[in-house]
Amino acid sequence: MPISILIPSPLRRYVGGVKSVDVEAGNVAAAMAELAKMSPELRKQLFDESSKVRSFVSLYLGNSNVRDLGPTLDAVGVKDGDVLTILPAIAGGAEPKLSREEVLRYSRHLIMPEITLEGQKRLKAAKVLCIGAGGLGSPLSLYLAAAGVGTIGMVDYDTVDLTNLQRQILYSASDVGRPKLEAAKERLTQLNPEIEVVTHPMHLASWNVMDVVKDYDVIADGSDNFPTRYLVNDACVLSNKPNVFASIFRFEGQISVFDARRGPCYRCIFPEPPPPGLVPTCAEGGVLGVTPGVIGSLQALEVLKLILGLGDPLIGRLLLFDTLDLKFRELPARKNPGCAVCGTAPTVTAPIDYEEFCQIRSHEPDSDANGVAAISVEDFHRRRGAGEPFHLLDVREPHEYGIVSIPGSVLLPLSQLPARLHELDSALTYTIHCHKGPRASQASQLMRKAGFRRLQLLTGGVDAWAERVDTSLPRY
Questions:
Q1: How far apart are CA 474 and CA 476, in angstroms?
Q2: Span 126-140, mean pLDDT?
Q3: Which end of the chain has the lower number of beta carbons within 10 A, N or C?
Q4: Which among 39, 71, 88 is the end of a domain?
């Protein structure tokens, strides 16, 4: 008789990634034996040396545990159209039990035949690591906590800033100045006292990333910089962890599930990072506050699907979202055999120096990557106050200049610079700045190519000026 065997997501890689297989069998033991014939590797996972199903594997016929239906597997018969579900234990210790309060809290999950009590137990046993507690990490962690994910880890080392509140819904005005993880843990445990929130207040780096990710089942990357993004990707590949990736910029978002065991990793799609300054951060380019809410919620959805083994995760698919047109677009993402970390001959076999890989300097330089000299805001303020002449060029956009500007600066937006270079005098020394630095560096490159040689960059831009020189000015 043909019956369907549902394969949980951790085991699908042994059967070609399919969600279910059909076998001919008259009882549960025969059905499992037929399944084992399809994959010797799967047999090793499910059966012990005496060909008995391992004790950590539970089998359900319909909604009933097979152990409750008969003394042995061959004593439990099956009929045409029956559904047999394999339910392996998830890392996290003994099978959890739900309290009376938890049954009531998660009742809308429990009545769904796709989740039921067993699915909620899987959520409680699961451990998810959220990289970043900002715009994406806020909705992500809130929905994971509300759904009952038992252990939520969070990595961040920042403090709550007033500019965060436009989109980072984990925090309130009273949290400004507090460490993000301190405020996040308080908020999440207020939402759901039944969960555990593990905080990792650190800068994630090559030397500590493997120790951090090793205890988690799923990694959700909501980082806002390329070094961390490649670091997390490589750590997930090296530790065989799924990486639920998301990113945002202005009115757009991206999301995918990178699992090198079943599909591509982040490096397969983006083998190298863009040049520094080419892709602005949210601090440079801005973001519509609701955008990370949408993308972070989708990220939480993909995490829950992986834990529950439901639906079709975004493996091998990159989902793009445009908020202005309210359109989703899906692009195929294929595994690259030449990938440096998950390809057939990987060259990255341990975490590397990701700031060097992404050409990012972690300290204030005395020159940029093209050799243009840099000057600190303090030194600029002192020297200008002493009467030294400066020609201060602001390459931000007009709407930013209207928010705050350094006295004496001249606005010439980077977007207009190539067409207006003739307005500048190459015999003069220009001190270039933007909001925080990247666009000023791009402007210096354009000007050098046009023959300007007397250039210098104001390190940290107008943001550093407002922070360290004239604190009465607004920051954004």
A1: 7
A2: 97
A3: C
A4: 88
Asked whether residue 365 is domain-assigned, the answer is no
**Residue range 332-388, pLDDT digits in tens:** 999 999 999 999 999 999 999 888 888 765 444 455 555 688 899 998 998 888 878
Which residues are paired to 199 by β-bridges?
Answer: 154
The answer to whether residue 450 sits within a structural domain is yes
Are 232 and 243 contacting, i.e. CB atoms less than 8 angstroms apart?
yes
Q: Are 406 and 327 within one domain?
A: no
Q: Domain for residue 121, yes or no?
A: no
Bridge partners (DSSP) of residue 458 are: 375
Question: From residue 66, how far is each of 27, 46, 125, 246 by CA, in Å?
Answer: 11, 15, 21, 39
For 401-453, what is each residue's pLDDT tens digit?
999 999 999 999 999 999 999 999 888 889 999 999 889 989 998 998 888 88
Task: Return the bridge partners of 373, or none.
Answer: 367, 456
**Catalytic site positions:** 282, 434
Query: What's 28's domain CATH number?
Result: 3.10.20.30
H or E, element range at 187 = helix 180-191
Assess whether 21 and 60 both reside in one domain: yes
pTM for this entry: 0.64
Distances (CA, A) of 464 to 440, 460, 468: 14, 5, 6
Task: Give the residue numbers spanning the domain of 414.
Answer: 373-468
Rounded CA gap, 348 and 341, in Å? 5
Report the candidate in 394, 202, 359, 373 with the shortest Cα–Cα distance to residue 279: 359
How many structural domains compose the chain? Answer: 3
In the structure encoding, which two tokens stand for residue 425, read together?
């005098």
